[in-house]
């Protein structure tokens, strides 16, 4: 294999990781914030799909992609807020509620989004980072989603917030010991509702990146289960926002293997390589989850049976 082919393949993987990894990044950061407060939101797949549809519809109606981004964040926050409110009720299970809201979110998106399948909404303009290179492949790979820097900044702010701010300490306290938080006079339900809604808003930005950048259109299969994969990704990242960045790029690169092979003329087994992110998800769960034990970094309340 020549050096040129290797360089082309590497650039394609890098470009794919940067494009495909952005939705993973936002959804994993949103789930990380939610789980840090002691709540699981399996409904983030519904949040992602509904936000993707809302972003496309908002951009199409306003002729501005950034209005679509705002609509996506608000939509994600609203559906996640519903999850938080329902889970604060007595004898309501987080997992069952999340599954119900995943079905609700995807169902609403499919129903409300039918008129949006054919139209084309304005797209987010890419950040051109490859101008230094004469290679068209490198230039194409480094056309970066403008929401990526936002996700990186959020990861840094969340890391600092959990470590050094009062609100971050309260979120971690609610996630590690609800009884301790109550003993100090704080509302555990209030903290978790706020964290869940904020996590939904962050995940909504992932939906906006799907329909306003890559793949850049609305269809019913736009998410391909990325909201559910992000839950495994958070476990893999050990509930660390900065590790979520690395894990998102890893999963994004895994999703780019098939197109990268096509870029160097290998098309055999394309659909098989498209399954790499799902195989990686199973491998992560098998490698990191042990029956009867908690994963390192896991919020203590996640082990509670609610």
Summarize the structure.
The protein is mainly α. It has helices at residues 3-36, 44-62, 65-87, 94-112, 136-141, 148-164, 166-176, 178-183, 188-212, 226-236, 241-255, 257-263, 270-273, 276-288, and strands spanning 127-128, 143-144. The chain has a single domain, classed as ABC transporter involved in vitamin B12 uptake, BtuC (Orthogonal Bundle), CATH 1.10.3470.
Strand and helix layout:
Layout: H1 3-36, H2 44-62, H3 65-87, H4 94-112, E1 127-128, H5 136-141, E2 143-144, H6 148-164, H7 166-176, H8 178-183, H9 188-212, H10 226-236, H11 241-255, H12 257-263, H13 270-273, H14 276-288
Antiparallel strand pairs: 1-2
Helix pairs in contact: 1-6, 1-9, 1-10, 1-11, 1-12, 2-3, 2-4, 2-9, 3-4, 3-9, 6-7, 6-11, 7-9, 10-11, 10-14
Describe what you observe in this structure.
The protein is mainly alpha-helical and 306 residues long. It has a single domain (3-303), classed as ABC transporter involved in vitamin B12 uptake, BtuC (Orthogonal Bundle). The protein has 14 helices and two strands. A two-stranded antiparallel sheet has the order 1-2. The model has no long low-confidence stretch (mean pLDDT 87).
